[in-house]
């Protein structure tokens, strides 16, 4: 279950990749713009601001997130992104930090690109930090005897997404022009163990779903200590949090 409030705690930092992704799209007057996996709707306004005359389509599989999006005035609907099919007038698709939750997303990308009209743009970004301490430490703790029984198979590993070269090689063909790149953002976080709070809104969500309240509190306590060592706080109160992201902008010929 998604918690919109928890997810939006670091919205300024989480939203930066979407700005960079949208800036790459050269569509002038798209007919339909899609926020695929819109979450709480906090990024949908970027799309309406960039293309105010386009028909907006926003969807997400989380009822909690869609409710939050609707409270912001976003006409979102509940739908699994894997079931989404582009309308004939779909000219721009933004899929921000969604596909890492879908193991077979490369196959989906092939299908979506084949169904988009000529001139359409499909853009996405995924976290590329699954081998970073923020995620590796969670997997290490979950694999220990105390937690193995309840958390075996729950967490994602560092092969759930690909690198920019792999995506470019996989998706490019005579009918699709692909631009792929990666960026490592160095976020300046504040607060007590902010990396723990960050991953609580995303990477730890499956762990929270698998544990009861007492177990969850115990797991967080153990993880908090390890993350505070991996990501020490500076004397000025800042904790540096490097975060790699992988981007793809595909343009259909």
UniProtKB/TrEMBL annotation:
| Cross-referenced PANTHER family | TRANS-ACONITATE 2-METHYLTRANSFERASE, TRANS-ACONITATE 2-METHYLTRANSFERASE-RELATED
- MF terms in GO: trans-aconitate 2-methyltransferase activity
Organism for this UniProt entry: Saccharopolyspora terrae
Q: Which InterPro entries match?
A: SAM-dependent_MTases_sf, Trans_acon_MeTrfase_C
Q: Does the keyword Chloroplast apply?
A: no
Q: Does the keyword Nucleotide-binding apply?
A: no
- GO BP annotations, alphabetical order: methylation
Keywords associated with the record: Methyltransferase, Transferase
Stated name of the protein: Trans-aconitate 2-methyltransferase
Q: What is its EC number?
A: 2.1.1.144
